[in-house]
Amino acid sequence: MSRNELLATTTPNGVAIFKEHVGYVIPGKEYTWVELGPRPDMPPWHAQAQPARYPFPDHDAALKFARAESETSPGRDVVIAYPDGRRWDGKAWVA
Known about the structure:
2 domains; alpha+beta; 1 helix
């Protein structure tokens, strides 16, 4: 991507553009994001020891992923960020 290239792919819902550190997203489409804090049980050099953010096309897919991640990594912060700005950590709305 250092040569000002634009990576794109065709999906059933339209053309998706590759955004660095995110993946393929459809321009103009709203996504529900799942934000993951660092896993405390991983060494600092491990990828999961860093925060991460993943887009999902709808609430149900984001909720399913967030629940699974909460179960596999109990000490990790998991927050669902909705397109309207609300954020849910599984227990309460957060700022």
